[in-house]
Amino acid sequence: MKVLIIGSKGMLGQDLSRVFSDGNEVLAWDRAEIDITNPEAAGKISAAAPDILINAAAYNAVDRAEEEEELANSINGDAVGMMAGICSMMSIPVVHYSTDYVFEGTNKDGYAEDDEPNPQSAYARSKRLGEVMLRDSSADYWLIRTSRLFGKPANAPGAKKSFPDTMRDLAKTKKEFDLVDEEVSAPTHSLDLARRTREIVEALKPFGIYHATNEGGCTWYEFGKAVFEIAGVDVACRPVPGSAYPRPAKRPAFSVLKTMKMPPMRPWREALEEYLRQST
Hints:
single chain; Rossmann fold; UDP-galactose 4-epimerase, domain 1; six-stranded parallel β-sheet; 8 helices; globular
């Protein structure tokens, strides 16, 4: 199978390339190979003639999107519609990723695949736009929502590190941390998400929406405390409210994604332990 992965140098894209390379021909494209906001991108995809397209490219600067909503919509929305259109014409399936942020975050029972989104920020609206454009296309698709990704940093200049690596780096010079004890969501190892993606694709699961996160949920304070405990770093963590760190974009207070269509993935703390052990 010829697998075209767009956004291949990102955190998730690197793991997708690794996971799908076993037994498949992988075309790993990033910005140097394709600009998904350029009209010429459709022709490049068509010429590559893949058997499946996996889009791991995204605009994910949550706060900056409040001032760059047009750019966020272009990457997270319009480009998704373009890719869905070309995949429909070529009769190939497309995999696309979305986020827990499309939900408003008031349901403490969590959100299932069929629950109605209600995005509360520019970033969330842009991701929902991509979902709608994919849904309204005639393409066969797997839309996979996930949350709070952590993993190997993207292979690009200035790439942002995930929360566990940021915490470990800061702990080299700080011994006290104030961490927000709000915003409950499920940390997800990007490698586990890549593996779940291949599982869905190879099993030819019915097209539609899937949720894929590591099991469980936590606040940022609980996440950070777990990082330091597992890494054996002696720091003092203090829980603080979100108001201690005002940010432009509104975040959902509780956005744990319920996985109703697939077996649960392993607990987030177990995945975190493996990641920290292997990235030391």
